[in-house]
């Protein structure tokens, strides 16, 4: 695993300080493998370099999260960051508050309470499509940060969704595995229309899928 990681870093170094990594797409075996728990495979400097590469790649895509398997490295590390949205209705309905940049090492999550919410999601490794995924509204996240400090906290709303999406990647799960299949839409003008709705009521009526009772 260290050899695979260092090859990735060597290619990025050769491409220059602003290099980003190619994002693999659905069908790549790294996206369907259970990621290996990180256990000091890299030096501190190499880990920092990998985190910086993932951060640049996520921002350039652009996205709000990136797991190491998405750059072909089946290691249990993910990065997340969300500046939020300008649309106040969307922000309120989705509880989408800014999420500062952070690193998740060996993360896991567990639902807190029974409330579930459904919204459109996309994925940098499934280009061209969006679909509705029903997920727990609140989750307890446990992981380490990039310095090895323990993290144990409860997240709500969109930050909880981002953490679930990225942690799922580390288990070999794509968001499509959890999606309402009738909601699947190409991310063209119509797909963008469905995904822009604060809560996808119109999409549910038109495309014929159910939302959880707790949907706003």
TrEMBL record:
Asked if the record carries the keyword Secreted, the reply is: no
Q: Which InterPro entries match?
A: Peptide_deformylase (IPR023635), Peptide_deformylase_sf (IPR036821)
Coiled-coil regions listed in the entry: none
| Catalytic activity, EC | 3.5.1.88
Q: Which reaction does it catalyse?
A: N-terminal N-formyl-L-methionyl-[peptide] + H2O = N-terminal L-methionyl-[peptide] + formate
Q: Where is the active site?
A: 166
Textual note on the cofactor: Binds 1 Fe(2+) ion.
Q: Which GO terms describe its biological process?
A: translation
Q: Which SUPFAM superfamilies does the UniProt entry name for this protein?
A: Peptide deformylase (SSF56420)
The cofactor(s) it depends on are: Fe(2+)
Q: Does the keyword Ubl conjugation apply?
A: no
Residues the entry annotates as binding Fe cation: 123, 165, 169
Against Pfam families, the record matches this protein to: Pep_deformylase
Protein task: Removes the formyl group from the N-terminal Met of newly synthesized proteins. Requires at least a dipeptide for an efficient rate of reaction. N-terminal L-methionine is a prerequisite for activity but the enzyme has broad specificity at other positions.
The record's annotation in PANTHER family points to: PEPTIDE DEFORMYLASE, PEPTIDE DEFORMYLASE, MITOCHONDRIAL
What is this protein identified as? Peptide deformylase
Name the lineage: Bacteria, Bacillati, Actinomycetota, Actinomycetes, Micrococcales
């Amino acid at each position: 695993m260290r050899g695979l990681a260092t090859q990735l870093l060597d290619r990025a170094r050769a491409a220059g300080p602003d290099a980003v990594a190619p994002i693999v797409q659905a069908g790549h075996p790294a996206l369907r493998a259970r990621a290996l728990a990180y256990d000091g495979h890299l030096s501190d400097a190499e880990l920092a370099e990998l985190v910086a590469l993932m951060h640049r790649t996520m921002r350039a895509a652009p996205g709000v999260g990136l797991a190491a398997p998405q750059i072909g490295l089946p290691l249990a590390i993910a990065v997340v960051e969300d500046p939020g949205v300008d649309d106040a209705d969307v922000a309120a309905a989705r509880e989408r508050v800014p999420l500062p940049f952070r690193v998740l090492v060996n993360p896991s999550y567990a639902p807190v309470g029974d409330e579930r919410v459904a919204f459109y999601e996309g994925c940098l490794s499934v280009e061209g499509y969006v679909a509705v995924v029903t997920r727990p509204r609140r989750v307890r996240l446990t992981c380490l940060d990039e310095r090895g400090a323990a993290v144990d906290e409860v997240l709500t709303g969109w930050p909880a969704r981002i953490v679930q999406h990225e942690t799922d990647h580390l288990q070999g799960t794509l968001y499509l595995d959890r999606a309402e299949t009738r909601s699947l839409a190409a991310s063209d003008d119509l797909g963008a229309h469905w995904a822009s709705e604060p809560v996808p009521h119109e999409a549910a009526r038109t495309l014929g899928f159910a939302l959880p009772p707790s949907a706003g």
